[in-house]
Design brief:
about 15% strand; 6 strands
């Protein structure tokens, strides 16, 4: 039976659209990747047979070669490549999760220690953003601008877009002062206010803005200079 002859609830793509991707069985998810049937078997039938060849194990299927997958009737190199690509994306997603730093950020000194090796001794200003999840774990960090000896300009739109893409709940802005004076200038204060307001629009918290000056740093959250030894 062809896919189009099945009831709507039995068609993987239609079922996904109506009920969400989690409503699909393993075979139905694979059928979405397989796309088309072959020789009287629909995509779901082929997907079931492919899964059966791996002892109904996703783990087993994930390590099968293209040649092994192609031993299933209806699976050719293109369909095998789609399935293999899906598993590889899953592996990379897991790798990203493992890179989350499982330490909750509780004070500015933790950020200083995390970032000082990036910024100490620089002759120019750099601006970085640290992205946090709801547990205040670091889920990403990136340099958002690089400037001269006395200033750097950040793009608020880029920062917010990146935070949304990472599903961040909080952000910490970090930049350095090559002069050695960690006290914020007028521009620092103004840019902090702009970013805080923009982030709040998307329910993202600007947790802190930290200015690093070698062995000292200023925290907007604490509104004070701290000396590190």
């Amino acid at each position: 039976m062809k896919i189009k002859e099945l009831g709507e609830d039995d068609r993987p793509r239609e079922k996904m659209a109506a009920k969400g991707v989690r409503a699909l069985s393993n075979a139905e998810l694979i059928a979405v990747l397989v796309r088309t049937g072959y020789g009287g078997s629909n995509a779901v039938d082929i997907a079931r047979n492919l899964l059966k060849s791996a002892d109904d194990s996703l783990a087993g299927l994930s390590v099968m070669s293209s040649r092994q997958m192609c031993a299933t009737c209806g699976i050719g190199p293109d369909k095998a490549a789609s399935v293999m690509a899906a598993f590889e994306l899953g592996r990379r997603r897991e790798a990203e999760e493992s890179r989350v730093e499982k330490i909750s950020i509780t004070d500015p000194a933790m950020i200083y220690r995390n970032m000082v090796h990036h910024m100490k001794g620089l002759s120019h200003e750099e601006c970085w953003v640290i992205y946090l999840n709801r547990a205040n774990y670091i889920i990403g960090k990136e340099q958002v601008s690089r400037g001269g000896t006395s200033a750097t300009v950040m793009d608020v739109k880029i920062i917010i877009r990146s935070a949304l893409e990472k599903l961040a709940s909080g952000i910490i802005l970090v930049h350095n002062h090559p002069s050695g004076n960690p006290m914020p200038g007028t521009s620092d204060i103004r840019q902090t206010g702009i970013l805080k307001k923009a982030a709040a629009t998307f329910d993202i918290s600007l947790v802190d803005h930290i200015i690093i000056a070698d062995d000292r740093f200023y925290s907007f959250a604490n509104e004070q200079v701290e000396v590190m030894h």
